[in-house]
Structures are given as C-alpha cells and as structure tokens.
Amino acid sequence: MHELSATESILRIVNEEAAKHNVSKVTKIKIKMGVLSDLLPECINYYFEIISKNTVSKDAVIEIEKLPLKIKCNSCNAVSNIGIKHFRCPVCNSQDLKIIGGNEFYIDSMEVE
Amino acid sequence: MEIKIVRQVLEWNEDCNEELKALFKKKKVFVLNVMGSPGAGKTSLITKMIESMKDKYSIAVIEADIEGKIDAEKINSMGIPVVQLHTGGACHIEAMSIKNIVPEFDLNKIDVMIIENIGNLVCPAEFKIGEDIRIVVLSVPEGDDKVEKYPLMFSTSECLVVNKYDMLKYFDFKYDRVASDAKEINPKINIFPVSSSNGDGVDEFVKWLESEIDKKYKS
After folding, report:
1. Does the pLDDT of residue B89 top 80, yes or no?
2. What is the CATH classification number for the domain harbouring A50?
3. In degrees rounded to 5, what are phi and psi of residue B39?
4. Angle B127-B143-B178 (CA atoms, 0-180°, nearest 5)?
5. φ, ψ at A15 (rounded to 5°)
6. ipTM strictly over 0.95?
7. What digits encode the pLDDT tens for the residues A16-46?
8. What residue ranges do the domains of chain B occupy?
9. Is residue B155 within 8 angstroms of chain A, CB to CB?
10. Distance to chain B for A109, nearest Cα, Å
11. Residue A81's domain spans which residues?
C-alpha cells in the first residue's frame, strides 16, 4: 500500500539525477532491495508507469534485485546469509546476531540514452 | 550508458527521522511508536498507560487515523494534550508528518510522547518516525499466526504486547507459539501479556517501559 510514496521518491531521485547529467531518456532503473522490505515490486512498476508520464523516465524499466538477509554472528564471528524465519547463526546456532544486510532499499544505477 | 546513483529510496524519511531523533533528545522527550492491527486495542492500551504513568511523567499523544477523531477525544478527556493526525487514506505515518505536527506541542513540558500509528501490521514497520521504542500490539482474537505472517513488524519492535489476554479461554490462541515465533526472529523483544480492559499485566508492562525511559533520561 505504501509503494506509492516509495515510487514517487524513485521517480524524483531518477529525474533529479537525469537533469544533473543532462539525460533526455532513462531506459532502465536498477534498484537493490533487501528481503526485509515488504514492498511489492509489481506495485512499484504499476505506479511508476502512471506517475512517470511526461517525464524523461516514462519508458524506463525498473529492475529490482533482491538482496539476502545477511548476519554477522556475535558469538563465533561467522558471516552468513540466513532465512528470516530462522534467526540463528547457521555455524554455531547462536541468536546473538548483527544484521549487516537485508534492509537495503536504494537506487543503484540507471541506464540512459 | 549507465550512470551510478546509489541513493536511498526512503532517504527523505531517514533524514527526517534523524532530525526528529535529535530534536527529541535535545528536549528530553521519550517517544513511543505504538503499532498494531485495527481493533488490537492500541487506544485502550494507551489510556491504561496514561493512567498509570501520568503522575510520574508529563505525557502527550499523537493520534494518527485515516479519518475521524474518536480516539483523540477519548484521550483528550483524560486531560492529556493530544493532536489528531489525519493521513487521508495513507496506511502509515512518515517522519515528515510528525515533524509537521510537533510544533503543536510545547516539547519543554513533555517527558513522554506516545504516537498511535495507523492500524496496520505491514506498512508502518518500514517507516521510522523518530521513536525510541516501537511497541506492537497483537490481540488474542487476531490469531497466533501473526508473527509468522508479518515478520518485519515483529522483528523491528522492542516490545510486543499480547492484548486481550483475558479472552484467551475463548480462542484457540497459543501464547507460547507467539512468544517463540517472536523470539526466533527478534531475540531481544520484550513480551507482555496484557488485558487493557481489566488492567491485568499493565503494571509489569509499564514498569519495563519506565525503566527504559529512566535509563535514557534520568541516569
């Protein structure tokens, strides 16, 4: 539901960057999103199509790459990718973990003509 | 041609959240973000919190609702400064909404600010609003599968209040399942069974809350 405000932000940032680089057409927007984000890529695409009309990004395709939940174990120092429902170190089974990846939600780059 | 950007999509909210945190810290206001489904009993819990904390702290409330002002009126009748925030259909509040509404209060006179978020177990979890502590309220009639279904909300909260605990005998609700699911995704979460209608469990919850507040501002 809150994808609209996120999509508006994507459009604003991309158009700002396009203006900065004197770009007349954005063809692709590459986004990285951690698995801890509940945002739906389909909704973002849907909203983007509507709100990007009349901007340099109107034909841009949004590509979202999902990043895994990554932890560093405070007990054994191992760094691992884990599933959100099993919040344990796969090496030593400790629950004393620091999340070091999985919260991301950023625009990595854009392809332009 | 590819242009590297690397900018946070929610950057405006992150920046605004940091700004609010600094402001609240300067004014020594402890901020609670109360979240949960519609009907989980957020407002009833808040009224109980006010009753047991108001002699010790000066409390203010921000009531976020999509429409209406019933909750705000209920709290205002207790003599607590309250401002109603209408989101006009939006499913969550953002830091900017709090920033815009904060000038309505005299922060010098407030120790604890309670923000009641929009009734929703999904969206509010994504947006920090300058809070010190997140409290998620889950009520017994909602079912014991909610932690598993909405992990983000429970993994980002410091406290889980299992409300309407007096109804346990009428529902097939396994408290142990909720507690173990929550601890599995968030080992540091503090869990309190509470009945905000008869007041059971409120003391223990408030005692914990007060220790968190005092840890930050009275030590």
Report:
1. no
2. 3.30.2320.80
3. 85, 5
4. 70
5. -65, -35
6. no
7. 999 999 999 999 999 999 988 878 889 999 9
8. 29-217
9. yes
10. 4
11. 3-112
Q: What is the pLDDT of residue B219?
A: 58
Angstroms from B175 CA to nearest CA on chain A: 18
Are the beta carbons of B128 and B11 closer than 8 angstroms?
no
Chain-chain contact of B4 with A85 (C-beta, under 8 angstroms): no
| Chain A contact set for B120 (CB, 8 A) | 1
Overall domain count for chain A: 1
Q: Is the CB of B66 inside 8 Å of chain A's CB atoms?
A: no
Residues in chain A closer than 8 A to B147 (CB atoms): none
The total of other beta-carbon atoms located within 10 Å of residue B34's CB is 27
Per-residue pLDDT of B137-195, as tens digits, reads: 999 999 999 999 898 899 899 999 999 999 999 999 999 999 999 998 898 999 999 99
Cβ burial, residue B25 (10 Å; 0-12/13-18/19+): middle
> Do the Cβ atoms of A85 and B94 come within 8 Å?
no
Please give the mean pLDDT across all residues of chain A. 91
- CATH superfamily, domain B29-217, is P-loop containing nucleotide triphosphate hydrolases (3.40.50.300)
CB contact under 8 A, A2 and B123: yes
